[in-house]
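User: quick one, sequence for these tokens?
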């Protein structure tokens, strides 16, 4: 069943009127978001804005992208560039990372929704920008654990959560962002203890999510993409390649997207991914990576 959405209320507001309005909206499902694993259902409220249900024919081909926006930029610059780029390239969705400082700006891109979870432990660090007509009422936060880690600036980075949303009635799209400074040596994961535990946890949660979706909805497509901070070619337990192999998915890496790094890409099941290419950086330290996702003939 497709849900209809109103403009979101901003999480954490102490205003009593806002709290009363939120209470009125919850029964209608406007702020509803499914919880996954140990993510607290009480805080699993997806923020979605704009648009209406699609009444046309369900598309069998979608144009998508994954993009690490990069922190500490001007939110309005991010909104303008991404909005213009998405419209010019007729993108149906974009898997986004490092967006928890840009929610308000990204919510105001005409023709698109932003789906994210401000109540997650990372405060909505990932999200999916979706064309208004394609958004379905199935949104999930996949909460990793591991305790988070200390950043190079001495701050604390909380455990990562991935954002999942169902599009066009047949494709489950997930945006993920794994921590940096984790490597594999001789097939063994290596790096600072807390970063390693955080990477492991999200890998296990993503694998569990993928297996459940395939078992429950074998005829639907699944696309997990984002900034993995590790190439698709790396082998070893908890690596992106390990997730794909364990879940029976196919990786679509190989495109340089962070200098010469090939760390931004998707993996898929039950759909065909073609025309993978790197686009511009748009002011980020990552290139946006574009692709086309097609539903196999005979399904749906």
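Assistant:
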């Amino acid at each position: 069943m497709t849900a209809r959405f109103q403009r979101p209320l901003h999480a954490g507001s102490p205003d009593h009127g806002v709290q009363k309005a939120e209470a009125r909206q919850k029964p209608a499902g406007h702020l509803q978001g499914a919880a996954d694993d140990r993510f607290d259902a009480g805080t699993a409220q997806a923020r979605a804005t704009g648009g209406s249900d699609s009444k046309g024919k369900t598309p069998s081909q979608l144009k998508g992208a994954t993009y690490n926006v990069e922190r500490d930029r001007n939110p309005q610059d991010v909104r303008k560039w991404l909005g213009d780029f998405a419209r010019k390239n007729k993108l149906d969705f974009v898997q986004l990372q490092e967006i928890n400082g840009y929610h308000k700006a990204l919510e105001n891109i005409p023709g698109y929704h932003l789906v994210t979870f401000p109540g997650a432990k990372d405060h909505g660090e990932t999200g999916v920008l979706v064309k208004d007509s394609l958004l379905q009422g199935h949104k999930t936060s996949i909460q990793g654990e591991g305790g988070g880690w200390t950043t190079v600036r001495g701050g604390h980075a909380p455990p990562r959560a991935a954002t999942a949303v169902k599009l066009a009635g047949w494709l489950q799209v997930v945006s993920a962002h794994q921590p940096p400074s984790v490597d594999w040596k001789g097939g063994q994961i290596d790096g600072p203890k807390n970063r390693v535990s955080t990477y492991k946890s999200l890998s296990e949660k993503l694998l569990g999510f993928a297996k459940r979706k395939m078992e429950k909805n074998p005829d639907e497509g699944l696309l997990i993409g984002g900034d993995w901070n590790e190439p698709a070619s790396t082998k070893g337990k908890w690596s992106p390649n390990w997730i794909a192999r364990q879940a029976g998915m196919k990786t679509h890496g190989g495109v340089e997207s962070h200098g010469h790094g090939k760390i931004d890409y998707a993996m898929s099941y039950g759909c065909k991914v073609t025309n993978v290419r790197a686009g511009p950086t748009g002011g980020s330290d990552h290139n946006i990576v574009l692709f086309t996702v097609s539903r196999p003939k005979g399904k749906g």
